[in-house]
Write a structure and sequence with these properties.
Strand content: 35-45%
Order of helices and strands: EEEEEEEEE
Distance between the termini: 11 Å
Number of strands: 9
Length: about 120
């Protein structure tokens, strides 16, 4: 989803959880390249990101290699055209669209459908 800055006022970022949408924060709270951690109703956390083109991504905030809830503080980038977040601890990169670890094909994080409404 790509949105012009002037159209983002009042929009809310929402994640699909099971059969319902969960409001995370205002779209204006997201800064391209920086993550926001969101506490979900079941106690888990999601890491929510936007890029410079206005696309939204959400993955589990828990780093599967360390168990720490830190992916929202990771660095974002692209590798071969794929958007990723790198864990701030051990630097493994996770594809923001699929959750697949780019450094270990046997590991992945949960991804969430995300929208601004």
């Amino acid at each position: 989803m790509t949105l012009a800055l002037e159209t983002t006022t009042g929009l809310t970022v929402r994640l699909r959880l099971a059969d319902d949408w969960f409001e995370v924060c205002g779209l204006d709270r997201l800064i391209p390249g920086r993550g926001v951690a969101a506490l979900l109703p079941d106690g888990r956390q999601a890491a929510v990101f936007t890029d410079r083109a206005g696309r939204l991504y959400a993955v589990d905030n828990r780093d599967p290699f360390t168990g720490a809830a830190v992916l929202s503080r990771g660095l974002t980038g692209t590798h071969r055209g794929r958007p990723f977040v790198a864990s701030p601890l051990l630097k493994q990169r996770f594809d923001l669209e699929t959750g697949r670890c780019l450094d270990d094909d046997t590991v992945r994080v949960t991804t969430y459908e995300v929208e601004a409404a």
